[in-house]
Amino acid sequence: MRVNEVIKLPWAYVDEKAGFIRLPAEYVKEDKPRNVPIVPELQTILNELKAEQRKVATIGGRVFTRNGRPMKSIRSAFEDAREAAEIVDLRLHDFRHTAVTRWAMMGIPQAAIMAAAGHHSVQQNNDYTNINEGHLRLAFAGYTPVIQAVPVENESAASY
Question: Within 13 Å of residue 34, how many CA atoms lie on the same side as its CB?
Answer without folding.
Answer: 22
